[in-house]
Amino acid sequence: MQFQTADISIVRSIRQVSLVRDWQRSRGQKALPNLADFTPNERAGDAADILMNEVTRQDGKFSYLCRSAGERVAQIFGLEMISRRLEDCLDAGMAKAARPIWDACVNRKLPVYSILPLADQSGCPVTIEQLFLPYSKGSGETDVMLAVLHAWSTEGRFAIQGLLRGLSKVPLHWAVVVDPEGDAAPRVVKPAVDEIVWVDHLGLAPEA
After folding, report:
1. Is 105 left (phi over 0), alpha (psi -120 to 50) or beta?
2. What does the pLDDT read at residue 1?
3. What is the pTM (predicted TM-score) of this model?
4. Is 103 helix (H, G, I), strand (E, B) or coil?
5. Where in the chain are the domains?
6. How many CB atoms lie within 10 A of CB 105?
7. SS3 at position 141
8. DSSP category for residue 79
9. Is 197 within 8 Å of 204 (Cβ atoms)?
10. Whole-number pLDDT of residue 3
């Protein structure tokens, strides 16, 4: 599956925009920034929203092993994540829908931004904005994928615990590859897929 590419203006969260900019500056002229150069902004509270996944490759397939998880990330997933595969931290349907997004981040060596609309246990609408950032440990390939999660609700207060688990239906996954140096023109695209739909600026669709 190929993804549309958009510039950084697609990202809503101010902190996530800042993290994309930091990623871009750290990358410089390299294929990927080095993980050793990444430091969460403690004053902004970034660490609580960050999930670090080690990327391994076997038989042409990627595997994502959780190495660290911030407090709010662990609450959103609703379980202990350390030393577990990322796909095992989600229900099967959610993992199947999310995997192409993770793989796009690794393959494209660019940030991927995703919007996930769902509800908490009491039915309160919640939006989870996810930013996936590829980093290297010096290999030139994506050795680590950072996931930065930001959950919010138009209703104000909501229950954060277990937002990504126990859903009766897999929600639409909106996703776009973010090119910080790009200038993608926005256009409206009608969603065409039932479970996974790919986003450009205002709609979701795969590349032609």
Report:
1. alpha
2. 60
3. 0.86
4. helix
5. 5-198
6. 28
7. coil
8. S
9. yes
10. 86
